[in-house]
Specification:
Blueprint (H helix, E strand, L loop, with lengths): L2 H25 L24 H7 L4 H5 L14 H5 L6 E5 L5 H10 L4 E6 L2 H18 L4 E5 L12 E7 L8 H11 E14 L5 H4 L2 H5 L8 H10 L3 E8 H9 L3 H9 L10 E9 L3
Parallel strand pairs: 1-2, 1-4, 2-3, 4-5
Antiparallel strand pairs: 5-7, 6-7
């Protein structure tokens, strides 16, 4: 395939993802997926049956954390808790890839305190508008002005070299058509000694072609996922070290029990005797940039 064909395919993927998440932002919740052609409720995008709060609690967010969020910041788009993985400290600069409505940014802000800073990056204008609209409520609740949001693609972050002490991301890298470039960008914006904490979906084994070609499965964070070994290789090739990967398969299995519409469609396309949790897992990734 030619370079121009690859570029066109990548742009098509970005536009499909952008359109899907613009719809979510306009509706204010992953519930929109029941009415759109992009995808049904999904693990990455949240289960309508569980609801955003229940989903967030299932991946490790506490009731107290959720209570501090501006209204509408939690849209049920999580598949892990990168702010907990990151062990954030006062004074640190955090960059959140695919920040959406600001969910993890608004949780990271109080942890880095007034001397720290949180930069959320998202490519969807509707999500950016929603996040920026939540800043005033965040300031009122915390008396902090340390969170900002920038429009940009995670393959080309609008962030200077060696800016971040920590890069976080929650169920977003799987959406990128150029994951090696995302990991190179992570390494670029990290300070020497900086660290990364990512929650994402990954594959235990390749998906059938029928599923990898579904637009709804792409926007639903399934079709774009790669093998765990590939994720590790991308991080290593970007120059990161101390790479640790932890599978959290129970999360995907529990969503299957909720009779999620997207999972029903995926399950129907799988080989007889298998289920989505045999192919897909939630994955926690931590790594560090050498000094």
């Amino acid at each position: 395939m030619s370079d121009s064909s690859n570029m066109n395919d990548a742009q098509t993927i970005r536009e499909q993802v952008r359109a899907g998440y613009a719809e979510i932002a306009r509706a204010g919740t992953a519930e929109v997926k029941k009415q759109t052609s992009y995808c049904g409720p999904s693990p990455c995008c949240g289960s309508a049956a569980a609801g955003p709060s229940a989903l967030a609690k299932s991946v490790g967010y506490s009731e107290a954390e959720l209570a501090t969020l501006p209204e509408g910041a939690n849209m049920g788009l999580s598949c892990g808790n990168p702010t907990a993985l990151a062990s954030l400290k006062p004074g640190e600069v955090v960059v959140d890839l695919g920040s959406g409505g600001g969910f993890d940014c608004f949780l990271a802000g109080p942890r880095v305190a007034p001397t720290g800073r949180v930069i959320g990056v998202d490519m969807t204008a509707e999500m950016l508008s929603k996040a920026r609209g939540n800043v005033a409520a965040y300031r009122r609740r915390t008396n902090l002005g340390n969170v900002e949001f920038r429009l940009g693609e995670i393959e080309h972050l609008p962030v200077a070299d060696a800016t971040a002490d920590v890069v976080i991301s929650n169920c977003v890298i799987n959406l990128s058509p150029d994951k090696p470039q995302v990991w190179r960008e992570i390494a670029r914006v990290l300070k020497p000694g900086g660290r990364v904490a990512v929650s994402d979906l990954a594959l235990l084994r390749p998906l059938p072609v029928e599923i990898s070609g579904m637009v709804e499965a792409l926007v639903g964070c399934v079709a774009g996922a790669v093998l765990i070994s590939e994720t590790e290789a991308y991080a290593r090739e970007a120059g990161l070290t101390d790479i640790r990967l932890e599978q959290k398969g129970g999360y995907v299995a529990s969503l299957g029990e909720l009779h999620d519409p997207l999972y029903k469609k995926i399950a129907a396309a799988l080989p007889t005797g298998t289920k989505p949790a045999d192919f897909i897992t939630s994955l926690s990734v931590t790594a560090r940039k050498p000094e």
